[in-house]
Design brief:
Strand order of the largest sheet: 1-2-6-5
Structural class: alpha+beta
CATH topology: Rossmann fold
Helix content: 10-25%
CATH class: Alpha Beta
CATH architecture: 3-Layer(aba) Sandwich
Order of helices and strands: EHEEEHEE
Strand content: 35-45%
Largest sheet: 4 strands, mixed
Number of strands: 6
Radius of gyration: 15 Å
Number of domains: 1
Number of helices: 2
Shape: globular
Length: about 110
């Protein structure tokens, strides 16, 4: 299951529902790959901000790495992180307060799939 660059546009309750739904689609052999823009030191919420790159207004929640890990663990009720970290090669100097985080994980063997 691949989830890249989507979660930052979803509010908390809907994101929890989404993550629980992804778990329902999985079995114990399913690998998950998540990648998101994150706040390096703290959560950053932007609401209806102009972006020259997008040539449009946008809103997003730059959660921290710890917030994403906690949400994933809570909603999927038992995961094993195989690898996770920052993708500094994607960072832009003009966005010093954010970074790119990735995680490869699977459900724990004793996880209830119900």
């Amino acid at each position: 299951v691949i989830d890249v660059g989507v979660s930052m546009y979803i509010n908390e309750e809907e994101l929890k529902e989404c993550y629980r739904g992804l778990k329902q689609l999985a079995d114990r052999d399913t690998l998950f790959y998540f990648e998101e823009s994150v706040g390096k030191k703290e959560r950053i919420t932007v609401n209806h901000i102009w972006s020259d790159n997008l040539n449009a207004y946008y809103s997003a929640i730059y959660r921290t790495r710890e917030e994403y890990k906690s949400l994933i663990e809570e909603c999927m009720n038992g995961v094993e992180f195989i690898e996770e970290g920052y993708l500094h090669c994607l960072d832009k100097e003009e966005h010093a307060e954010t970074s790119h985080w990735y995680a490869l994980f699977r459900l724990k063997k004793d996880c209830d799939l119900g």
